[in-house]
Design brief:
The complex is a heterodimer of chains A (86) and B (160).
Chain A: E1 2-4, E2 7-12, H1 17-28, E3 33-40, E4 44-45, H2 48-63, E5 67-72, E6 74-75, H3 78-85
Parallel strand pairs in A: 4-6
Antiparallel strand pairs in A: 1-2
Chain B: H1 6-38, H2 47-58, H3 63-74, E1 82-89, E2 95-102, H4 105-118, E3 122-124, E4 133-141, H5 148-158
Antiparallel strand pairs in B: 1-2, 1-3
Helix pairs in contact in B: 1-2, 1-3
Classes of the chains: A alpha+beta (86), B alpha+beta (160).
């Protein structure tokens, strides 16, 4: 588990997610989020040029109504993230 | 900048944000409908539905929309959605996993494939990149609810 100023994040196995959520909910109230996701084991650090391309790909995928979630194993600079999200 | 109207600028930006928002609501509603259809329409007995509703609330989706999405699952004439996972590579060899809910596999597969190739990537077979990821459950709480130590202790007790 990790805590940051954004909040507390607890990891659970797919099998235990429901039970752990219930136990924690009883104690702390409704969580902000409880979901299954794909967590990259390793990430690739990208420069801004490559980063911009991959962010465009993800944005286009997200634009499709059928697509629910997109996961990818990369990291880009905060500055680029900021630029692309505005 | 052309046409120095600040208002126009705001309008344009707001229009874009509203569109993104309704798109997001549509996706959240689809997940709610699918979850409610697979199990019971009561979130207390349907963990996936509960997770879907939590996600919708976190985005401030109106209660009416949520209820409508649940109700929709109980209708006889609802489309049935398939869950599909696409795996591929983006530019720079980045591994990408796409989760989709679709009522038309052929359309979605074509769409996803086209997006990959248009953006310098390519769609691979299922299983080609998912081994580079762990499929895990994540639970998040606001920082205000408790101290990190208290949450950690409770999480260990709960078996996380």
């Amino acid at each position: 588990m990790t805590s940051s100023e954004d909040g507390h994040q607890i990891l659970a196995t797919p099998d235990s997610l429901n039970d752990v959520t219930k136990a924690l909910e009883a104690k702390f109230g409704e969580p902000r989020k409880s979901a299954m996701l794909w967590k990259p084991q390793n990430t690739i650090a990208l420069d801004d040029e490559a980063g911009e391309k991959i962010l465009r790909l993800i944005e286009s995928l997200d634009d499709s109504d059928d697509v629910q979630n997109v996961y990818a194993n990369f990291e880009v600079s905060d500055a680029l993230m900021q630029k692309m999200s505005t | 900048m052309a046409g120095h109207s600040q208002f126009k600028n705001i309008m344009h930006k707001k229009g874009r944000a509203d569109k993104a928002r309704s798109k997001l609501f549509g996706k959240l509603a689809r997940e709610i409908t699918v979850a409610a259809k697979l199990g019971m329409p009561d979130p207390a007995f349907n963990p996936r539905l509960r997770a879907a509703i939590l996600a919708a609330r976190a985005e401030n989706m109106p209660k009416d929309n949520i209820e409508r999405a649940v109700k929709k699952s109980q209708g006889a004439d609802t489309e049935s959605y398939d869950e599909i996972r696409y795996e591929g590579y983006g530019p720079g060899g980045v591994a990408v996993i796409v989760e989709a809910l679709t009522d038309n596999r052929n359309r979605t597969a074509g769409e996803v494939r086209a997006i990959f190739s248009k953006n310098g990537g390519n769609l691979a077979e299922t299983g080609a990149v998912s081994f580079m990821f762990s499929h895990v459950g994540v639970i998040e709480f606001d920082i205000k609810v408790a101290s990190a130590d208290a949450v950690l202790e409770a999480a260990i007790d709960a078996g996380a």
